[in-house]
Give the backbone structure.
Amino acid sequence: MTSTLRRAADAQLELLDLHPAAADMRQLVIDGLRQEPKQLPAWFLYDAEGSRLFDQICEQPEYTLTKTETALLQAQATAMAAALGEGTLVEFGAGSARKVSPLLEALPNPAYVALDISSEHLADACRRLHQRHPQVPMVGICCDYSQLQQLPAHPLLEQQRRLGFFPGSSLGNFPQDEARALLRQFRHLLGPGSKLLIGIDQPKTVDRLEAAYNDAAGISERFALNLLHRLNRELGADFQVEQFQYRARWLAEASHIEMALISQRQQQVTLCGEIWSFAAGEALITETSHKYAPEAFLALAAEAGWQSEARWSDGADDLCLHLLKQAD
Ligand SMILES: C[S@@+](CC[C@H](N)C(=O)[O-])C[C@H]1O[C@@H](n2cnc3c(N)ncnc32)[C@H](O)[C@@H]1O
């Protein structure tokens, strides 16, 4: 891991770079391609272009999650802030950090720490957010939050209680075992007395679920294919991108959407000094998105040492924002 601290022009905003080193990325790719079926960690989707495309996905009419969650946060920010209490808001996977403003406006004396793997995008997001909330001290930390042993030593993280914020139903991008482990990890990173406000997308009709990840404008497809461009550019792979086709489907038994790139013919790809065979029709899974009914999610959270304190749902029961506190 590299670690540099870039102090922005204004002392109220700092950026810290703990992005995994290229060697670690190579090892993760090798491990993922050795799996059956082949699957890479979802965060590989998020280079600068991937983050830009994700923002476009959020604007597509079929992808309602962002609009629903943003509206719920705006409508309930006062109640959420009252239940959260005073502390430093730590957002995991902040992306463009477009959802946090209502909370920063409603919380007493807020400070804000944004964690994300996509470094340039995170820096831009923090600068924009800082312009909007110049009085709020902020730090952006580029890292893989699932691998952090500790949050870095920083006054914003040490002077007051830590309040986790994990919107976007990003927990669903982790297989259930890893999701449970991640919730435990957040408990450890946030420390005693912490709380976690987490957005969880709920199961819906198959048509709605599949449409959300197969937008008519084809942005989800470009987002997935960008992964192959990234591997070609950053790790010297030779994927023929046009020989892979995007597929997103709902797997009811697993309660998740599976997003994959399907090899259009028998082919070989050189990557990380090895030759990898793809059979015709073979999938490279780029991401899954697990959907949890509230009770199923709370059972998982309980196994990770969290208990429910409150929850807010949109009128259509599409999505729930759960406030969790550490179990006694
Ligand atoms: C589904 S997007 C959600 C973005 C934003 N939180 C929202 O609600 O719209 C997931 C975000 O988490 C980041 N991310 C994914 N996996 C990550 C990881 N392991 N560590 C740090 N950031 C990660 C991505 O770069 C991306 O910005």
Remarks:
- Residues 1-9 have pLDDT under 50 and may be disordered.
- The chain has ten helices and 15 strands.
- Residues 294 and 320 are 7 Å apart (CA to CA).
